[in-house]
Backbone:
């Protein structure tokens, strides 16, 4: 059992004194003094809920409230990870990517799925991933689930079981995943929609330039509206400037009056090709994306790993999409973990601090930091509908991550492996699952 660097008392009422909070994530008095987009505050926790956020040192000691001195330690709300692949995670020991490319990943995953993805295999790997995410301080996750016809009735029931098992620790959502060419196959959408209604989840697919793209999108939008399902797409995951399915999705959303459907914002992930297009084309597309009300999630670690990879040639581009330009147009933007230890990304552990740290470096979430911390917390909570998550303020759950670092440079220079994760006002065990627990899947 390990619970990080902070000695948190088992107490109904305590006050985190001298916490440093990202200003963009705090619901507190407007008078909280800010420096470097951080505020110094005291956070009162009562019965597992944040009862007050006050400027540091302004509230006198109260009987029955135990002081916990943070001496500037940073406090985040628990993270929200809007785009993962729990069903695929950790297959690397038996399914590596031969060349680190996207086609290499597709082929390796396809073969592994066909050979090994029984309910037991999927459950074991998903459970492992959830344990890691929980220990790192994540409270809500949306996963995509590979949903080719033969896999649907294996993976979706497992997901539904785990959603119940993890209720109260990690809020779980899922979205279906297949290529646009599979989505147009006769009977596919009917089968998928029936499974989503049975198990709960949203509709999605991978969009790329295919003759099936326009009819496929039309069919998916119709099916989603009829069945009342949210939409979440993998979009243009390539550096080919000719890939423009993002614009077609935005146009379909406008045509289908999606913003009036009451089904939340459509989420579009990746959108890498945008960074290879000229400014005029980018502007035309982003105007449409803003008008359609889409929300965008970038996957900085996976995109950097897969994109611009040519054997023997040094990568020159980062592979991520244009989050700064999107944010300037009012488009909600997020970052998320994506794949973990599978052929789409050989590394990763569903640690959203790592994702945020890498996003800071790859996407320049700094100088100033401004409201970029929202991209891993409040924005995915709002976009995906994880109510009450991603902010710290009176009434929010005392689901907090306390880091030893006191400033952005201290926080992001080290992995903060000794963080303390507080759930419902109590420190949890932050011991990570041992990789050896998975060995039975391939030995
Ligand atoms: O990045 C991607 C794209 C498709 N499928 C994945 O698992 N990851």
Residues:
């Amino acid at each position: 059992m390990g619970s990080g660097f902070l000695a948190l008392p088992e107490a109904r009422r305590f006050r985190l004194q001298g916490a440093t909070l990202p200003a963009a994530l705090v619901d507190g008095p407007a008078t909280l003094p800010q420096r470097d987009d951080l505020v110094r505050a005291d956070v009162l926790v009562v019965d597992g809920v944040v009862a007050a956020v006050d400027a540091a040192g302004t509230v006198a000691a109260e009987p029955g409230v135990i002081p916990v001195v943070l001496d500037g330690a940073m406090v985040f709300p628990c993270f929200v990870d809007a785009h993962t692949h729990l069903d695929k995670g950790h297959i690397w020991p038996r399914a590596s990517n031969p060349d680190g490319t996207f086609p290499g990943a597709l082929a390796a995953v396809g073969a592994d799925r066909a050979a090994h993805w029984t309910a037991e295999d999927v459950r074991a790997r998903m459970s492992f991933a959830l344990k890691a995410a929980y220990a790192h301080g994540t409270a809500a996750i949306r996963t995509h689930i590979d949903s080719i016809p033969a896999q649907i009735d294996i993976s979706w029931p497992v997901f539904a079981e785990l959603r119940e098992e993890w209720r109260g620790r990690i809020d779980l959502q899922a979205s279906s995943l297949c290529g646009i060419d599979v989505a147009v196959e006769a009977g596919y959408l009917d089968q998928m929609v029936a499974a989503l209604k049975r198990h709960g989840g949203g509709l999605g697919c991978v969009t790329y330039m295919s003759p099936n793209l326009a009819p496929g999108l039309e069919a998916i939008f119709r099916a989603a509206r009829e069945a009342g399902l949210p939409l979440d797409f993998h979009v243009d995951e390539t550096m080919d400037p000719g890939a423009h399915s993002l614009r077609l999705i935005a146009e379909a959303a406008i045509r289908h009056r999606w913003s009036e459907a009451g089904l939340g914002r459509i989420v579009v992930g990746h959108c890498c090709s945008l960074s290879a297009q000229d400014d005029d084309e980018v502007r035309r597309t982003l105007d449409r994306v803003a008008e359609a009300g889409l929300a965008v999630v970038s996957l900085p670690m996976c995109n950097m790993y897969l994109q611009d990879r040519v054997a023997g040639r040094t990568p020159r581009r980062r592979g991520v999409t244009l989050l700064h330009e999107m944010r300037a147009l009012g488009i909600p933007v997020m970052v998320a973990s994506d794949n973990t230890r599978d052929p789409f990304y050989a590394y990763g552990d569903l640690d959203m601090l790592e994702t945020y740290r890498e996003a800071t470096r790859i996407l320049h979430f700094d100088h100033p930091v401004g409201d970029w911390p929202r991209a891993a917390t409040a924005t995915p909570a709002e976009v995906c509908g994880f109510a009450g998550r991603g902010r710290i303020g009176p009434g929010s759950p005392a689901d907090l991550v306390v880091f030893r670092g006191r400033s952005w440079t201290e926080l992001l220079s080290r992995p903060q492996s000794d963080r303390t994760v507080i759930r419902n006002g109590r420190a949890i065990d932050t011991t990570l699952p041992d990789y050896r627990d998975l060995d039975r899947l391939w030995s």
About this structure: Residues 13-76+391-427 form a domain with the Urease, subunit C; domain 1 fold (CATH 2.30.40.10). DSSP finds 13 helices and 17 strands in the chain. Residues 119-136 form the longest helix (18 residues). The CA atoms of residues 357 and 412 lie 6 Å apart.
